[in-house]
Amino acid sequence: MTLGKLFTTALLLSSSVLLFAFVPAKGNPKAVPHSGDGDRHCIPVGGMVMTNFGAVDQNTTLGIATGDLKGAVAATLLGAPQPGAGGTVVFRIQHHWVTESGDAITVDPAAATTVPLSNTLFAVVSYPVHITGGTGKFAGATGDVTNIGEADLVKGTVFRYSGQVCFASPEDR
């Protein structure tokens, strides 16, 4: 075989392989979300949390969550609020979350940075929450949500949450 025929054959073979790479497979295979975290499958989540202080004791809220993480929530203040930078007030909080289906969501202690609007009303300017697992479909899950809203130490709290939860397997989405 001459060098010219070898080159032409190699070019045709390469083109054929490349062409087959772009030919769709038969059927309509379902796309699998890719999260970049091995076999984990991540989904966006969002909703609202509304709680009342004093439902359990003066440092614990109790209430509901709507949206993708619908269920019951509680939050316990981990000490007195502390002064933060620029006149802010920081609340350290431990959350307790149970979904409507009975799965528990475990989260790290969180810090809510707020701006005081009165002695009892605070606007939330930064409130990240990190999910570290749980039970049922949240076993092995991870995620991060951010919150905006207000904390009223007399009337209760209202937050809007949004973020992402990554589940250990596609069946858990």
Provide structural commentary.
- With 173 residues, the chain is mostly beta strands.
- It has one domain (41-172).
- It has 1 helix and 11 strands; from the N terminus they run H-E-E-E-E-E-E-E-E-E-E-E.
- The chain has one helix spanning 3-22; strands at 41-57, 60-65, 71-77, 82-83, 89-99, 104-107, 110-116, 121-126, 128-134, 142-152, 156-167.
- Strands 1, 2, 3, 4, 5, 6, 7, 8, 9, 10 and 11 form an 11-stranded antiparallel beta sheet that branches.
- The longest helix is centred in the first third of the chain and has 20 residues, at 3-22.
- The N and C termini lie far apart (57 Å).
Oligomer state of the chains in this structure: single chain
Q: Structural class given helices, strands, pairing?
A: mainly beta
Tally of individual helices: 1
**Which sequence of SSEs, written as H and E, runs from N to C?**
HEEEEEEEEEEE
Backbone CA Rg: 25 Å
Mean pLDDT: 81
Outline type = globular
**What does the main sheet amount to?**
11 strands, antiparallel
Separation of termini?
57 Å
What are the segments in which pLDDT stays under 50 over at least 5 consecutive residues? 1-35
Helix content: 10-25%
As a percent range, the share of strand residues is: over 45%
Report the strand count: 11
How many domain modules? Answer: 1
